[in-house]
Amino acid sequence: MTTVSGITHRKVQVRSNLERYGFMFMRLSGISLLVLAVGHMVIQHVLNSVHNLTLEFVALQWQSWGWKAYDMLLLAFAISHGVNGLRNVLGDYIHNDKTMKFITYFLAAFVVITIIWAGVAIASFDAGKVLGSN
Asked: Is 89 domain-assigned?
């Protein structure tokens, strides 16, 4: 520490850690979710009649990789944002570091498995079978 004219200065090194990235992820994914979810609601429920929301309607949309990518992004942001929020809430009540570390790894594995599983389901969806063409 150095002292200059009675004022003490010290250098503080801020460590980069998981919580900082989690904090930023929650803000950025929240903004992304707002855009994606509102867009989804407008497209599915405002621009189209509720009575048109059938498997055939989804199959027609999912013939395009753009719609598949849109839905995959919505899924990925929603599940990871929600599970990260759950982890934060659990961290307020669970004070054992080992237990929280286990829960964090478990939730991370759950998110990765869910996104991969649902992503494969969306990507491999065969609209031709639903629409009756081969």
From this structure: yes
Give the range of the structural domain holding residue 110, as residue numbers without chain letter. Answer: 15-128
Asked whether residue 81 carries a pLDDT value surpassing 60, the answer given is yes
- The pTM (predicted TM-score) of the whole model is 0.77
pLDDT at 111: 97
In a domain? residue 105: yes
**DSSP character string of 42-104:** IIIIISS-GGG-SHHHHHHHTTSHHHHHHHHHHHHHHHHHHHHHHHHHHHHH---HHHHHHHH
**Using only C-alpha atoms, what is the Rg of the chain?**
22
CA distances from residue 55 to 39, 64, 134 in whole angstroms, order as listed: 20, 15, 17
Q: Does 23 have pLDDT greater than 90?
A: no
Tokens of 126: 């065969």
Burial 100-118 (b: 16+ CB within 10 A, else e): eeebbeebeeebeeebeee
Please check whether residue 10 lies inside any domain of the structure.
Answer: no
Give the lowest-confidence range in 10-19, 39-48, 49-58, 77-86.
10-19
Indicate whether 7 belongs to any domain. Answer: no
